[in-house]
Amino acid sequence: MTNTALITGASRGLGLALARSLAASGWNLVLTARGADDLERVAAELGATAIPGDVADPAHVERLARAAPELDLLVNNASDLGVTPLPPLAAYPLEAFSALLETNVTAPLALIQATLPALRASSHGAIVNVTSDAATGAYEGWGGYGASKAALEQLSNVLAAEEPSVRVWWVDPGEMNTRMLAAAVGAEEAAAASDPAKVAAALHDLVSSRPAGGKVSLQ
Question: Which CATH code of 3.40.50.1240, 3.40.50.720, 3.40.50.1010, 3.40.1380.20 fits the domain covering 4-217?
Answer without folding.
Answer: 3.40.50.720
